[in-house]
Amino acid sequence: MRKRKRSGIRRRYLKYTAALLGLALILSILGVGAYVRERLTQATLDKYEFMTERMGIALENLFQKSDEAMEECILYDDVQESLKNQGLEAVNTIALSKYFAYIDLDHVADYCYIDNKGNVYSKSYSDVTSETIAQSGFEDYLGPEYSRTKWFWAKDTLFGTGDEALFIGRYVRSLDYAHEPGMLFFKMEDSFLDDITGMSQELVSEAVIGLVDGEGQLCLSWAPDGFQTGDEIGKMVASKIGGTQAAGMFLNGEKMQGGIVSAYLDENSGLTVFSFVPDSVLNKALVPVLLVPVVIYLFVIAIAVVLSIYFSRRFTKPIQVISDAMTGFDGNNFDRTIQLNTHTELDEIGQSYNAMLQNIRRLLEEIKAQEQELRHTELNMLISQINPHFLYNTLDTIYMLARINKEETTMRMIQALSKYLRLSLSKGSEIVTVEDELENVKSYMEIQQIRNQDLFEYSIDCQVDESSAYVLKLILQPLVENAVKYGFCDIFQGGIIKISVFEKDRDLYLRVYNNGMPMEMSVMEKINSMNTMSFSQLKECFPDKKNGYGVMNIMTRLRLKYGEGAGLFCEVYKDGTACTVKIPGGGQEDACEK
């Protein structure tokens, strides 16, 4: 016969070992990665936030320097003279035009000053006029303030270059008289703002740095090689500033698509400097840290697999011996034992298997003997203790004496007892019709009525064919006896016993109800639990045999005759107790012989 293919415990052990080690590797990498990433990210954030703050402070210093240069220009004598009504002489006009080229402010690309009379002072080659200044719209950038230095990023429509640049402007007012102010504008080179990143070259090499004005316009940006400009980043930063944003650091390490951003708002200039650190910078330090545990775990996995193969071969050989012995057991040969000498728990398994074989053989023999004995014990006891013919003749003699003396009650009792005994013996048969079983219990109840005058009344409702339905004999009488003995123990009259026989779901049910004292819940639960007990447990259920012996006897006989499908169930009501016997197969005669 072809042998069925099996996986084998050794192969499964190796699979599970590899799976567990792989899972441990993945979880360790995830755990270490999450921890290291968090720590490295926080350290990187702290570093770049510090650098961003330094750039913001550098931006403030630049504004302060430009403000001081503006104040110096306003205080210059020729500037103040130009605001007076008489104006400057030609020599002083030329000198003033050259003066602005030598102010203490670096990276000035171009300049122009227009006094309150429309005179323009600029470089000698410049063609800036008062009309040019008016058309440029730069005066609007100076705002309503009396005299305050303003930075603004705009297209150069003043000097005619047309490029975007940073402009510094301010109203120039007389210190002595209330005249109309003049205006001073400086166009700054892009290198003017390089001082912002001068102390953060590391930041410039790894992150995107940019300047955003108050209107959300990106002024300048510095990006590492191969990285996109900061237009989108600048728009996001500008949207976060808002009208009420306080000066100083904000967006401290805020996550956005592709990285994290920090920003610093200079309230004086209205510009915001920001730094955007890409995820690649955050992750580049993570790879070498994770590489170490990966290499270690791969090495451990390799060693573990080799050792697992070696030890699995040693320990699975005796397991295979046990498996072959169990698989080859045919249920008949109880002498096929196994012998192991591994000095491990497998030896105990082998010994337990050998002991199990002997126990199975012994139990099978005991079960066969006990079943045969239990099937005939009750009948043999009745037959051995009672001589039916002698008993019937004696009862007939007593009946005739009672009839002669006209003892009606005695006559009724003797007739009921005679019928009860005759039906109980049933010529040695264990199976009787429902009709005979009902006649038997009816005789028993008549005897009890005579003994306990006016104690109870009874009724019988049979909804099946009495002559064609069969049951195990003497199963109703113990239930009626318990009803009289325990249910009616505290009453003297008014008792009711109702016996009903009916069929449900192709099973036969015999129900005995009494309106006496309800059964205790603990007793009911114990009786109902007997339906799932083994024979040995049934014997231990009522060990003293003083109480419950009749119920245990019924349950044992039902189980032996009908198997697991039979049962005895009790139900407790406020006004009494009902006990129901279930006979599988609808009480058919062939079902009784199973």
TrEMBL record:
<feature type="domain" description="HAMP">
    <location>
        <begin position="313"/>
        <end position="365"/>
    </location>
</feature>
<dbReference type="InterPro" id="IPR003660">
    <property type="entry name" value="HAMP_dom"/>
</dbReference>
<dbReference type="Pfam" id="PF00672">
    <property type="entry name" value="HAMP"/>
</dbReference>
<feature type="coiled-coil region">
    <location>
        <begin position="346"/>
        <end position="380"/>
    </location>
</feature>
<protein>
    <submittedName>
        <fullName>Sensor histidine kinase</fullName>
    </submittedName>
</protein>
<keyword id="KW-0175">Coiled coil</keyword>
<dbReference type="GO" id="GO:0016020">
    <property type="term" value="C:membrane"/>
</dbReference>
<keyword id="KW-1133">Transmembrane helix</keyword>
<keyword id="KW-0472">Membrane</keyword>
<dbReference type="GO" id="GO:0000155">
    <property type="term" value="F:phosphorelay sensor kinase activity"/>
</dbReference>
<keyword id="KW-0808">Transferase</keyword>
<dbReference type="Pfam" id="PF06580">
    <property type="entry name" value="His_kinase"/>
</dbReference>
<keyword id="KW-0418">Kinase</keyword>
<keyword id="KW-0812">Transmembrane</keyword>
<dbReference type="InterPro" id="IPR050640">
    <property type="entry name" value="Bact_2-comp_sensor_kinase"/>
</dbReference>
<keyword id="KW-0597">Phosphoprotein</keyword>
<feature type="transmembrane region" description="Helical">
    <location>
        <begin position="285"/>
        <end position="311"/>
    </location>
</feature>
<dbReference type="InterPro" id="IPR036890">
    <property type="entry name" value="HATPase_C_sf"/>
</dbReference>
<dbReference type="InterPro" id="IPR010559">
    <property type="entry name" value="Sig_transdc_His_kin_internal"/>
</dbReference>
